[in-house]
Amino acid sequence: MVKELLIDPADIRRPGELQLGSIPVNAYATPLAVERERYGDEALERIGRDMLLVREFELMLNAVKREGGYLGVDYTHLGPAHLSIGQEAQAVGQAFTLDASDKVFGSHRSHGEVVAKGLSAIAKADSARLEADFSAWSGGDAWSVVRARLDSEDAEQLAINYLMYGMTAETFGRSTGFNRGLGGSMHAFFPPLGIYPNNAIVGGSAPLATGAALYNRLRREDGIVVASIGDASTGTGPVWESFNFASMAQLTGLMDEAHRGGLPVVFFVVNNFYGMGGQPIGETMAFERLSRIGAGVNPQRMHAQSVDGNDPFAVIDAMRTARTHLEDGTGPVLIDCQTYRLSGHSPSDSSSYRSKEEIDAWSKGDPIDRYFSRLLDEGVVDRERQQQLKSWAEQTVRAALEVAIDAEVSPRLQLRDDPRVMAGITFNDTSVDLDETPAGETSVPLDELPYLQTIAKKSRSGIVDGTALTGAKAVTFRDAIFEAIVHSTAADDRITLWGEENRDWGGSFGVYRGLTEFLPRHRLFNSPISEAAIIGTGVGFALSGGRPLVELMYADFIGRAGDELFNQMAKWQPMSGGLAQLPMVVRISVGAKYGAQHSQDWSSMAATVPGLKILFPATAADAKGMLIAALRGNDPVLFFESQRLYDQTEIVHADGVPSGAVPTPLGLPNIVRQGGDLTILTVGATLYRALDAAKRLSDEHGIEAEVIDARSMVPFEYDLLLESVRKTGRLVCASDANLRGSWLHTVASTVTAEAFDDLDAPVTVLGARNWIAPPAELEWEYFVTPDDIIDAVHERILPIEGHSAQSGRGAWAVPQDSAVGI
User: Fold this and answer.
1) pLDDT tens per residue across span 553-593
2) 585 in helix, strand or coil?
3) Can you state the percent helix, strand and coil of the chain, rounding each to 5?
4) How many angstroms from the chain centroid is the CA of residue 21?
5) The whole model's pTM is what?
6) Partners of residue 83 on adjacent β-strands
7) Catalytic pick from 111, 487, 598, 653?
8) 598 in active site
């Protein structure tokens, strides 16, 4: 919703036709002599050397998987080995123009890109800088091993030994690997050399790379970003969402001059013509050339071209051209890099889906053989030098393998011996130092923001002299979130917001009303309705050093971003071995009154996924304090908000909503009402129904219930709850999540185990019925009500004299597999 963009019916209805233009296919035809003059013999030899080392690493993995050893070194590898033998030219050609400031995000088949990118970055880097980076990474563990066992007087060779050892140790799950052995073959990355996550999810790197490029553009950082994805990944939604996100017209049209320009990202499609056993061209896709996709994205056709991926110079030429476009601000770029994997999808793949004739034809054009034949013909190297380089590659790989499998110097993490290791890797539980954060760029000073001034005129408490105030006179939950955001964005310039309807309209449910006047467009902008891209770009932005605050309009839309939330956002911090930080907050509203696809509380589903902090405040004071804490923290957070509460004033915390930016400690539940007969634990908006039920229990039956607001689901400290249960002997848990699979069952199980001797009745869990959410007219047949809580107390906890339960069976009593319970 952008007022300055007029949609003129006269223009829209005017007859005409779109001219899509042409896309180059295998247009590179530069003689080797010209390339030799441009780059020099040393560089030409290095290209061949790097191709050999990439190939040798893969041959080692293949031999270890198939034969249990390599060049006399015995080893059994239990993990995966997705090989790219035959694709070395594309990996080395892609990396040749890149240095450590350029980021490459890979796929599950990216050993080649890792090795090639590392070699290129090493060749361009200062040796002192490399030593500083290597000795700092993971406390210098890998660097110490390399200096002790793989030392070299040649600085470049020493750096290469570090690269190969770090990758080998990571592949084999060693704590001295790049990611402490927790990433493994498919997830290895090493940011000091510009190597960002390899992704086991097909196409998973596309949105992450787009987010990293967004960071470069909006933070005005040097370098380009490459998303190495396979040809079959173009059948996935997140890849298409990334193409569009990276090409948004507002980037080149609406952003101010300092931040204007298309995103500096190359979608580098490693097109080996197979997606496992499926063949995109002619079978599973519609295009005859993958580069055709570019014509459907933007007027520049994404500067798409198809290139011969078995010729490193054709790839280098395409990457040089791509960089020109990206630095000119006309990105993104799509490169269809046509190559061929001579190996199977993995060592267990017999390639039964392709003919021997096809494999033989491509084998005759082996890129390494072709390349060295050209060097020989041109007189750059001779046969002896080629063999020397081959022997060097073998020796380098073998030496790295020997050390990587030596359990004395390359041990594995012993996770069962000390479970705290994994806990510390999953969450770092650290926060930024506000004295060191870059002050936020704003359109007006914080104290001059009109909407903030309007809120300042309201009472900080929702109850004054015993009278309840409306949202017109008291600070609401919505106001509190707004305050948290403006305070946080003013304090830290790295916090950037995007999502659906974030700008101009005021955000979903008016939470961002007034924010458009405060933040310039490069800090607050509308995204496409592309949930996978919204979350995925946030992950890449955060991995690059940014602090994204992005939004999903409804919890129901989690399904559209499931991979990005649960496989990307949740996992890169622990899969890095805790060496990377992912400071990202996703605001997610939990709906009401909108039926089955807009009224689901999926917080329990999210809480089952390790790696995410799950917050669900129910009061205005907590909403503000917990969001401030989340935005200052360095962990990934899902911040759930009930739409029922946006107009709720602060009636729980006696001091009201703090006017300053005061963070609330995460993980600590809060006692809202004191009582000695019964404990009621709630999540989200059920707090107020529990308070209603508690009042009725007290007024009508003399039962004093202690009501506790969970506030945070992950983390959740049990001490306060257990102390309450030991006092009352009884516990009812209630939330709006479906009863089946509710996080509260985990709470019930834990309390039963830890306080069994103190319980006078079984722990009872209440939740929404195990149905689809009905329309507004029927929703209180579905969600937990105060009557449900009282009935649960009567039937399962403490019989109440004279009480008659509602007709029908309570949600807590319905067997999970019955026809009634669904």
Assistant:
1) 988 999 999 999 999 999 999 999 999 999 999 999 999 88
2) strand
3) 45, 15, 40
4) 36
5) 0.96
6) none
7) 598
8) yes
